[in-house]
Design a protein that fits this description.
Mean pLDDT: 91
Oligomer: single chain
Shape: globular
Distance between the termini: 51 Å
Number of strands: 0
Strand content: under 5%
Number of helices: 23
Radius of gyration: 23 Å
């Protein structure tokens, strides 16, 4: 409940500006409708898992509007600390107190909070990735099912490949019999089918997962990108769709504490901790070789793992003091508890203070949500009132779909006009056939489908 409140608070602050960014409009309005129409609308619309998430959410949310996706994602991402608490308790063998600290820290770090409310794909892959690795490391027989969850992580956002790579490695390592191998093969086959299934679902296009990284690996500037990762983590997370003035790990001091904690966790609980640490390494590795658009949102796994591994490090600290026999039993326990609280406060206080400042900047408009797509807002109006006017114009016949598309954001706006009407029980001002006809006149169609499909 606390995590949902925190995330929703950020979402409400940003929504107070009345601006939906271009990528949010694409993913939560156009791409969701496109999925139901068996239509891939652009070379960037490759993450069918997140499209399905927002499509389902849009149908069940009680208050559908232009900004519905932000609270929906905020609530979904509130499951992350719950999963991390379970990981710390059952996989890293932490006490309830230290597990709680790790889960909270991982969830309030800017690297997690800043993506937890934005209506895009990134962040959702971490949610599914944690669930996948939690299952893959289970002592129960269902552990090969982690491969299916890992595939869902990949389908939600390409950065899920970091989680999937480690899940595959763990599952291969755990094979001890022909039966195990058969289950791993089955899980891998189902997972691959899930990732590739949009190719059968869409009537056009044919690109999955890659999105902005469709050019493949780029090894030429890996050193520069590695330095960039460090900068994003400890100095300034500022990058594409990063609505915060903070670094992903808040500061160099907090980053240093988390780094020491990760080392302690690896040294003291290597067998339990190494898969989680490997995810962070895989995320960094994927970042430095990828040709996609760089930015903090592609290494969310580092913040998640950094906060998580604080839990076993603190747990080791508590156990070290608790084993002392020279003092009355209550003394080392009290000292250990004080140290845990002090360590938690050292991290959580600056992190939450920075988060509150960021939220205030969003709510006041000091940190603007960009209108990074060609949608001219009416003088004195908002995106919502402008869409209402376009809707009325289409219904009255004073505007055509071609005029609206050419003048106000193309297929994104036309799709939004359909979904905003359909989800609220009204007849849309244009048909899906008119939307698809307009698509065939756009550059998106020419890039994705080419002639003779496009005009």
């Amino acid at each position: 409940m606390a995590a949902a409140t925190w995330n929703l608070w950020f979402a409400a602050g940003a929504t107070a500006q009345g601006v939906l960014a271009g990528e949010e409009m694409s993913i939560t309005q156009r791409d969701t409708l496109a999925l139901s129409l068996h239509w891939q609308p652009s070379i960037w619309s490759t993450n069918a898992g997140s499209q399905l998430f927002y499509l389902v959410a849009g149908h069940i949310t009680p208050h559908y509007d232009l900004f519905y996706a932000r609270p929906v994602k905020a609530i979904a991402m509130a499951l992350l600390p719950v999963l991390l608490y379970l990981v710390a308790r059952r996989r890293l063998l932490c006490s309830p107190a230290t597990a709680l600290v790790g889960a909270v820290v991982a969830s309030v770090l800017p690297g997690t909070t800043t993506v937890a409310w934005v209506g895009t794909e990134n962040g959702l892959e971490a949610l599914w990735g944690v669930a996948a690795l939690f299952v893959a490391t289970s002592p129960r027989r269902l552990w090969p099912a982690g491969l299916v969850l890992a595939a869902i992580a990949v389908s939600n956002y390409t950065a899920g490949l970091a989680w999937a790579a480690v899940v595959v490695l763990v599952c291969l390592w755990r094979i001890r019999s022909v039966w195990d191998a058969s289950l791993v093969l089955l899980g891998g086959a189902v997972g691959a089918a899930l990732v590739l299934s949009p190719l059968l679902w869409w009537d056009n296009g044919g690109i999955v997962v890659t999105g902005g990284g469709r050019a493949g690996a780029d090894l030429g500037d890996w050193q520069v990108r590695l330095v960039e990762v460090g900068h994003l983590l400890v100095d300034d997370g500022g990058s594409y769709y990063w609505f915060s003035s903070q670094a992903m790990l808040t500061s160099q001091i907090v980053a240093g504490v988390l780094a020491v904690a990760a080392v302690v966790a690896l040294l003291r609980r290597f067998c339990a901790a190494w898969p989680w640490f490997a995810v962070a390494l895989a995320a960094v590795g994927l970042y430095v070789v990828s040709s996609g658009v760089p930015g903090s949102r592609r290494i969310v796994a580092v913040a998640v793992v950094g906060g998580l591994l604080l839990a076993p490090a603190l747990d080791e600290l508590v156990r070290a003091f608790s084993r002392s026999r020279r003092l009355p039993r209550w003394v080392p326990v009290a000292v250990a508890s004080i140290l845990v609280v002090a360590a938690a406060v050292t991290i959580i206080v600056p992190v939450t203070q920075g988060g509150m400042q960021t939220r205030a900047e969003l709510a006041s408009g000091q940190r603007r949500i960009p209108t990074d797509w060609p949608f001219p807002v009416d003088r004195g109006g908002t995106q919502t009132t402008t869409l209402d006017r376009l809707d009325a114009g289409l219904r009255a016949g004073t505007l055509t779909p071609e005029q609206v598309g050419d003048g106000w954001g193309g297929t994104r706006t036309l799709a939004a006009l359909i979904t905003l009407s359909d989800r609220t029980g009204r007849i849309p001002p244009l048909t899906s056939d008119e939307l698809l006809a307009y698509y065939r006149t756009t550059g998106d169609c020419r890039l994705l489908d080419g002639p003779p499909t496009c005009r």
